[in-house]
Amino acid sequence: MKVGLFIPCYVDQFYPNAAIATLQLLEKFGVEVTYPLTQTCCGQPMANSGYEHLTKGCNELFIKNFEPFDYIVAPSGSCVLHVREHLHDPANEEAATVLRHKVYELTSFLTDILQVKELNARFPHKVGMHQSCHGQRGLKLSQMSELVAEPFSKPGSLLKMVKDLDLIELGRTDECCGFGGTFCVTEEAVSAKMGKDRVADHLHHGAEYITGVDMSCLMHMEGILKRAGSKVKVIHIAEILNAE
Amino acid sequence: MHESTKDHAALAALFNKDEERVNWHDETLWWIRQKRDKNVHQLPEWEALREAASQIKFNVLSNLHDYLLEFEKNATANGVQVHWAADAKEHNEIVHRLLQEHKVDRMVKSKSMLTEECGLNEYLAEQGIEVIDSDLGERIVQLAKEPPSHIVLPCIHKKKEEIGDLFHQYLGTPANVADPQLLTEAARQHLRDVFLTRRAALTGVNFAVAETGEFVVCTNEGNADMGAHLADVHIASMGIEKLIPERKHLGIFLRLLTRSATGQPITTYSSHFKKPRKETPIHIILVDNGRSVQLGRKEFRNSLKCIRCGACMNTCPVYRRSGGHSYHTAVAGPIGSILAPNLDMKKYKDLPFASTLCGSCSNVCPVKIDIHDQLYKWRQELVKEGYTPAAKTISMKLMAQTLSSPTLYNAAGKSGRFVLKHAPFLVNNKLNPWYKEREMPEAPKESFREWYKKRN
Questions:
Q1: Could you confirm whether domain A126-241 is CATH 3.30.310?
Q2: Across the strands, what pairs with B236?
Q3: pTM for the whole structure
Q4: Where along chain B do its domains lie?
Q5: A34 touches chain B (CB under 8 A)
Q6: Is B286 in contact with A144 (CB distance < 8 Å)?
Q7: Chain B residues with CB inside 8 Å of A41's CB?
Q8: What angle do CA B88, B94, B97 make, to 5 degrees?
Q9: Helices (H), B144-249
Q10: Residues of A in contact with B416 (CB under 8 A)
Q11: What are the residue ranges spanned by the domains of chain A?
């Protein structure tokens, strides 16, 4: 199985460990992983700001980079959701459609495609799981608290396979952290307040680490934690699943 | 209506100056969201009810013309007088004319967000007509000379001590009394006098049934009934989207409405008005005010399915932390943010951006409006129509150009320079809004790309 590794631009530049862990984790399961060096960004920052019409170049490049692979996997729910919902190319719509269906967020790729049943990982810490909205409500990685439906969690089921990991309960299971892309600066007051409240819930329940499928939410909460001088750390779920 | 030159972000920043108050506001509304959860989880068929309601409303919107005429025919046959208003101005003028015909200069009004949307109270005040809102929450904000901050819970932003002060000033309760029971009793006595002396009553409409020509008004306080039953004339104002085809459909909508709104199984009063009593006419005003324009916007038409339960406000993490007034429109929160730009794109261009697109609103919506997707689509629309600052457009174009070209990106991207330069949150100075309350991420020694190149 050939997988194209799609690494969000800010993960590439600020959180290389999340990307390295993703690559190593996939290789552990015998997947042939390639990181196309000419990839840039999925175009979401423009699209969410109302400039989806400017993402043509990003879309064409994405298709060119990832067309050859069986699957495209990224350690991000948000970027994958953007591709799933908005990757189009009028000149090559067939290819765009195929790609929209074979792009996966990491944890759902592990549970749904690779059907991972056990992991050789150990992480002896109290961990709070942040449900990133785009992964949870957009990609339906976990059941949503608003709906009357059976609970499940794809990332949660993987964390349960990690030895000695203590997954804490939260007061509000799936409240947004307030990052929201450019929202974090255009609506600074509400964004920061949402971040503080989300972090407080994890701290209140004794988290040593806050994890999640999206580094952007974690980056936001990391900024809050560091400003408060907290020793609690954020860590991408790939790093926990890859921890030995 | 609330007039302000400040946008949502600025008004939200003001609201956030008092963090204790933000916490209180957030927790109050979250408590209502939890009540809603607890209640809906008792109904295994909840999701099926939502789906049914959504489909019925799609049917209504697809056949609105026919249902409106059917309703008019049946209501008229029942003896109700039907009026049509193209916009807020016409609506207000019709109300005024009816009051003049009945020689009435004081009116009691139960909850109607439509009249807030139309600015009816202000208009009638200019004509020398006094309006008293009889919903307790609305009466409180009316005394405070404020607009409602929530469509179901108009004074949810007010603490009981502040209400005590208002009642002391206007209703003569003792100073520094904040006991809810005592304050409610004072309001009850005050409103009883209003009900007994007003000869005209205006109510809103929650549902109008095309099949029977009747309409249903839902209140918890019985104030719509008190007003309408004691007055000589009953005027009901409704948006044209409030129709449902048949009476049996109420079995779906009444079950959804209050569970979503406040976590109650049903409103205390769900009052049906069909035929007027002798010599006490009922007038119903069917108001368009932009709704047929919205109906014509394919991407946004299903926002008209809204039954005004307010669940999207209670669940919205932004609304809870910015307060209803920060939306500077009659209907606040996520639903207001997709309705308001239809009425005035320039004035409400900020609202579709007052969201993280977390999607919780769409999940609680009892008629399954894709609210967060519409927020995204309104952003595209507002940019297309030129309502974004030129500087933003220029920076977006530069960004798009760089991200479209691996060469440009890699040249700019070494050691994180591209993201540092272009991600608005990553400029380490005091002018950067990110830095005000959050530390910057640290740039690592090497990017993933650099690591990967070395490895291969």
A1: no
A2: B203, B284
A3: 0.96
A4: 43-289, 391-455
A5: no
A6: no
A7: 403, 409
A8: 140
A9: 160-171, 180-197, 223-230
A10: 13-14
A11: 2-113, 126-241
